[in-house]
Design goal:
Chain A has about 425 residues and is α+β, with helices and mostly antiparallel strands. Chain A has 16 helices and 11 strands. Chain B has 16 helices and 12 strands. Classes of the chains: A alpha+beta (about 425), B alpha+beta (about 450).
Chain lengths: ~425, ~450
Amino acid sequence: MARRIKIPATKYPVDRFTLANGLRVVLTPDRSAPVVGVAVVYDVGIRSEPEGRTGFAHLFEHLMFQGSENLEKLAHFRHVQGAGGTFNGSTHLDYTDYFEVLPSGALERALFLEADRMRGPRLTEENLLNQINVVKEEIRVNVLNRPYGGFPWLRLPPVMFSTFPNAHDGYGSFGDLDSATVADAQAFFDRYYACGNATLSVAGDFDVATATAMIHRHFGDVPARPAPPLPDFDEPDLTSERRDVYTDRLAPLPGVASAWRVPDPINDFDDYLPFVVLAEVLTDGDASRLVERLVQRDRIVTSIGGYIGFMGDEFQVRNPTALLVQAHMPPGGDAEKVLRTVDEELDRLSTDGLAPGELDRVQARIATHLLRDTDPVLGRALPMAVLELQRGRPEMLNELPKLVGEVTEAQIVAAAATLRPSRRATVEVLPGAAA
Amino acid sequence: MSKTLPDLIPDAKLKLPKEAERTLAGGLTVIAIRRTSVPLVELRLRVPFGKAPLPRATLLSQALFSGTGALSSVEIAAELQAVGGGLSAGLDPDRLVVSGNSLASGLDRMLEILADVLTDATYPNDEVATERDRLVDHIQVALTQPSHLARAALLKRMFGKHPYAVQTPEPEQVRGVRPAQLRTLHAERVRPEGAVLVLVGDINPEKAIDAAEKALGSWTGPAKIVEVPPTPPLEPGPLLLVDRPGAVQSSLRMALPALERTDPDYAALQLANLVFGGYFSSRWVENMREDKGYTYGPHTGIEHFHAGSALVVSAEVATEVTGPSLLETRYELGRIASLPPGEEELEQARRYALGTLRLGMSTQAGLAGLASMYASFGLRLDYLRQYSASLATASREQVAEVATRFLAPTKAVTVVLGDADRVESSLAALTTVERSAE
């Protein structure tokens, strides 16, 4: 085995300040390309939506694009794209983000647009109905009209969790979406879209003093509203295995996914991080434990993947969350056999430890992934906004490759030993379509 | 109180990264580009593969890394990982494409492993059998995906008997491929002649090319040169309706003629495409999504193959509004083909096209993809200057003229995949419909 390769680090500068109204700001300048990324993140997500309003956090995200104090419907899109930029937003379990990437000369325009909707979106009956229809089409594309729709991110939480915030369908039922009202939307905005409950981050080609002045100019008069209390969504770990099985009428092949609870990603970060590395030891590439055994040697799955967080956002999720392993099987595949073999490999790992060089190479590859993710300006603006929101530590983005590199074999072995069948939630998908 | 939208600060002149290029003795062209933003390097290799027998070529792309004389598939993956690296292969109708990346300090090692695979892939029987079964399973899943089925039906209608008409092999054809056939295909076609390797990252371009030359100097031998014939003209004909019983959405696809990148009118066509449907703030997307709520992510784009280009229109629409969606699509095509675009909407599209070019160049991966794609059409990154200038100067009249020539609804090949019994009558009210026999 070659000598261990040195894991490099980034040195993105980080400037932080808080406006008088409570908005937290992160600036990370980089003049190497003439582009900027702007991200605004609100501390509300799928877990906070009320019962009877499944899918509301996501629906509300759509409504934030439908016009605001000084902007007609369609204006936001046109102003961003007419500046040569792109935009989007996304709803996660614990936060909702809004972002633009633009040529650097459009920075002030993007700040104006974000500030305007932070003061308040235009919530109308017509826009609500229009976006309910759009969201239904989104759900049809991503869940209802395709094989394996929602597998496992919508299918596992109700098996693993017992409380509504953690267990419910974050895309929402059509019934709940149809009953959403403008008054619901206004109440949701009033409660959660407070500037004290948000972070703004700007990455890329700008001068810090100039950008700071722009931010004061545009966000300074957003009315101060405090953040609502942060709920604790914790629930007890499983003490015996939970299982579910369903038939997907569009799926030609069987599949199975399991999840195990992991330590609190924020308050217990040192114990949590080994699980992030473990997931890659198990499933990153042909030389990983589970791919080598189940795909190459035993040939009982056609693909297998492991990751943390139901939405794959391991450094942007709060407790409770899980390590997931999902596999697709050949025709007639046996989920029991797959689970048994995964257990065997976990036993082998916790009994015999890692092979020489195994941890080093996995850490090197994770470092590449982490570094590569930060290359686009948005790959800095977004995670730094979330790290500021959830941890008050945006500079952690620079530290992650090194922290991953410091995880030890003993920690990996200890983490693997916790993934017992009795703590597992499993969902099996049976093929309902002819292969 | 009303507030004023801040003005834009005009873009600085387009700045191209530092690069170097060398064609090696074996015929491989190496392009190395310096962008030091993160301590990584991106790798793209494109090898001409036009008209290669589809089942074999597809399986070859899946099994390329399954073993060499020196290394097993697991060892290849482990050795790459050790330098933070990973490589994978894919196939398009013109090329075999290898993509990957590693820590910048691992470039030499990644190139050595790539060279080992290119010069000494052995396609071991067991590993090939595994990859063959996996590929068959993968195709079975694709055959249940509406996006795949609609695309396959559209390609057949677009290309008829041309080799581009089928881009995914049948499971049965894949099952019949033997490892020896992969070895033969590899020997014939995985050759440096006409191939382009692009390296982008935290590298010294000259030194990176030296490293590529050192590692890949042993990759030699003539390639079997196969020309793909030009694509046939589109034949609009009746709307092809492909049945997918029980579908809750219909997949609407249209193909229109288009120009190749280097055509003097290409920039104008791209602007016409944007005004029509090529970005969110286009007429068609605003109409179909933001006004009617028929669809979530409608999009259009110009696709370039080596032997021809086409403009493809795609939307997944609710089953009950399939007819109305076709109506709005044809209306918007008719409008862009008949009337010149407004000044402001053209400027908006122009700024979008110019701005997103810069966004695309701002990352190592973006630059690598762009440089590799351009190179496979014989272009270099400096072509961006010319293209930007064409985008900046295309006039309303020019855009209107190409829109008339290329975006008229009468020129469209149309395919709808959906629950035929539920959507046929509403489609038939608008156009002649022919049900797919399959």
